[in-house]
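A student in our group prepared the protein record below, which I am reviewing. I have pasted the whole thing underneath without changing anything:
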Amino acid sequence: MEAMNLHIEPAAPEPIYRQIVGQVTRLVAAGQCPPGTRLPSVRDVAAAHAINPMTVSKAYTQLEAQGVLERQRGKGMVVAAQPQEQRPQAERLGALAPALHALALQARQLGLPPAAVLEALHACLHEGAE
């Protein structure tokens, strides 16, 4: 994985460290970063996106606490050995919580009925599955 694989939006309402946590969690869950994949260093990510290294460090520490990443001596942070698929479903769904809360808020602000939002979500989930 390279530092530029992360898409950071400094103007977004979501804090930058949460953007990093969410993106890395989703990349791991999707299998795009298999166990053992080395993550870019804190300095590399901070320099590539012109952000504070402490922000990246905070994200990596949170990912380590969640068991998504593990610190390996001499290698830095790598994707944890336990495949994401073996994690409990509730834990994997938890990775979607920020995006689901944002979706729910936007749907309420737009005055959309829950059934219409669920139908649209269902269609998005099945895109490309056929």
